[in-house]
Amino acid sequence: MENKSNSGVVYQGKIPGRVKYCFAFGALGKDLIYGMIATFSMIYFTDIIKVAPAFIGTMFFVAKLWDAFNDLFMGMIVDNTRSRWGKFVPWLVIGTLINSFVFVTVFTDFHLSGVSLCVFASVVYVLWGMTYTIMDIPYWSIIPNLTSDPEEREKVSVLPRIFASIGQSLIIAGFGVQIIKGLGGNYIGYHRFALIIAATFIFTMAVCVINLPKKQQNTGTTEKMKFRDIFTVIKKNDQLRWAVLLILLYNVGIQAIMGVATYYFSYVCNNAGMLSAFMISASVAEVVGLLIFPKVTKLLSRKKAFLLACTLPPVGLILLLVVGFVCPSNIPLTAIAGIIVKTGTGLELGCATVFLADVVDYGEYVLGVRNEGVIFSLQTLIVKFTAAFTALAIGFVLELTGYVPNTVQTLATQNSIRILMCIVPALGIILAYIVFKTKYKLNDEFMKKVISKITGSSTSSEQE
After folding, report:
1. Cβ neighbours of residue 404 under 8 Å, at least 6 residues apart?
2. Cα distance between residue 131 and residue 137, in whole Å
3. What is the pLDDT of residue 222?
4. Is the model's pLDDT at 393 over the cut of 90?
5. Does pLDDT of 370 surpass 90?
6. How far apart are CA 13 and CA 329, in angstroms?
7. Separation CA 326–CA 322 (nearest Å)
8. Degrees (nearest 5) of the Cα angle 428, 432, 391?
9. Which among 22, 249, 401, 437 could disulfide-bond with 416, CB atoms 3.0 to 4.6 Å apart, if both were Cys?
10. pLDDT value of position 8
11. Please, which residues bridge with residue 2 across strands?
12. Which range is least confidently modeled, 102-106, 206-210, 223-227?
């Protein structure tokens, strides 16, 4: 049933299954593309088309920083969009088509060299990030606009994360190397895989767009947002600031694990092949964490779901640390540690999306206007910002502790890798829970009050 109240959401209660699952299906192709870039673009540039590694490392860092802040501009553009198809769908279509073209171009060899090759790599990589943002920000911004019903919001938040994890973590990270080899290996394998992924992306997003409601509700003022208004939103929405901080701290942990994993298994466990066992089992566990998220929140509460999300990863990381000292080549125990860690991060992905959706409603509650684009752009900004600085920090720590590629590392270097892989992530995640426990107040009871006010009617019967 569509919403006839003053709320900015489309449906009063349940979202039609067709809308819910087709929306989630779009994340499969979207994160196949993201996973391919995140996992293989660097080795493709350095090993296949022969760009200097030092140049690529610097270019990636600068590009990620620019892309992070570019997200805020796109969030503002989305919130300012007024069209017959709503403010999300036009950008989904435009971003998908342009990004698919740029993505294939990234994995196309034009037989350049020297300065022209460096310029080409820089331009296509930056363009890929910018065009992905055009589609990614409106995609996640749709969630709080679909429903304010807590159970439905949890389901519609989790489903796309499941498809995203299948695309990025399971298919690309788990089987990408084998797929590229099966398609011919070397350049031809990368290029063919890119073409298949681009076609899949367009198809899955077409299914998503065709089945989305085209005329989302508009509330509040029709005055367009200026860039300086972004900082007003951040200043006046206190729960947005705390949600951003706890997500940032948690992401420091996630990014550190993913950034150091290859070094950890290669130089601490002395078995690079264990990475696949860790990643595949961990990817499946993350999907499981997302699948059980709505059930956990229903049986317990969102508060306890986030407690689990912040407890499981440190437990798994401690186990991984102990295994690294006692039996570093033990694949079953390493896989179990990965399962514990990633079950927790799966729960966190569900929590974070729901938190931000609630922050959108809270923003309307305190400011009288919905800022879905700006608020969800901050989530992607956090991921990219922490990825850039975590990568930089890892590089500096390895350099300072005497890391030498392709050789046995000193004890100091091995210990620094252990700290980066196990201790730093655990501390970041624990700090995230402290922020949540002490500062984040959008619990179930308070959100009933928020929804009641922004819809202009009592929602007690719907929320209980």
Report:
1. none
2. 11
3. 53
4. no
5. no
6. 51
7. 6
8. 35
9. 401
10. 59
11. 11
12. 223-227
Q: How far apart are CA 33 and CA 167, in angstroms?
A: 8
Strand partners, 11: 2, 147
Distances (CA, A) of 321 to 263, 327, 423, 431: 14, 10, 9, 20
Instruction: Report the b/e string of 131-162 with b at 16+ CB within 10 A.
Output: bbbbbbbbbbbbbbbbbbbbebbbbbbbbbbb
- Residue 212 is encoded by which pair of tokens? 């989305």
Report residue 460 as tokens.
């007690």
Taking each helix axis as running N to C, give the angle between helix 274-299 and helix 150-165, from 0 to 180 degrees, rounded to the nearest 10. 170
pTM: 0.76
Side chain identity at residue 181, one-letter code: K
pLDDT at 458: 47
Per-residue model confidence as pLDDT tens digits over 260-314? 887 888 888 888 778 777 888 888 898 899 889 988 988 888 889 999 999 999 9
The whole-angstrom separation of Cα 338 and Cα 331 is: 10
- Contacts of residue 281, defined as CB under 8 A and 6 or more positions apart, other chains included, come to 335, 336, 338, 339, 342
Tokens 């720590």 locate to 397
| Residue 437: count of CB within 10 angstroms of its CB | 13
Structure tokens at 236: 């006046």
Give the number of other Cβ atoms within 10 Å of residue 386's Cβ: 25
